[in-house]
Amino acid sequence: MAAKRKSKKRTTKRRSTSSKSRSKKKSKPKSKGKKKPFGGYAISFSGRTETVEDVFGKGFVTPSEMTKKIWKFIKAKRLSNR
């Protein structure tokens, strides 16, 4: 018969962390007023009286057609600030 091998469990020691490394100081975010919008365009739709049907029409619109119609509307009304 084959002899049974005795196996020892290998344990790893945990590294102890000091209380100094656990409690890190939280930095306060610096507020510099109003942030600029992400990306290159800043479009203002304030004061517009057009409805969604005026811009997109009454039928079904795919997302790609919707994007094209929005940009067509923005360029026609000169709403972009670029």
What would you say this structure looks like, in words?
With 82 residues, this protein is an all-alpha fold. It contains 3 helices and no strands. The protein has helices spanning 19-22, 52-56, 63-77. The radius of gyration is 31 Å and the shape is elongated. The N and C termini lie far apart (85 Å). The model has no long low-confidence stretch (mean pLDDT 78).
Quick recap:
The protein is mostly helical. The chain has three helices and no strands. The model has no long low-confidence stretch (mean pLDDT about 80).
Give the SSE string.
HHH
| Percent in strands | under 5%
Q: Mean of residue pLDDT?
A: 78
Tell me the overall shape.
elongated
Profile the largest sheet. Answer: none
The unreliable regions are none
Number of E-state strands: 0
* CA-atom Rg in angstroms: 31 Å
Class from secondary-structure proportions: mainly alpha
Amino-to-carboxy terminus distance: 85 Å
Q: Tally the helices: what do you get?
A: 3
Helical content band: 25-40%
Give the topology.
Elements: H1 19-22, H2 52-56, H3 63-77
List keywords for this structure.
elongated; mainly alpha; 82 residues
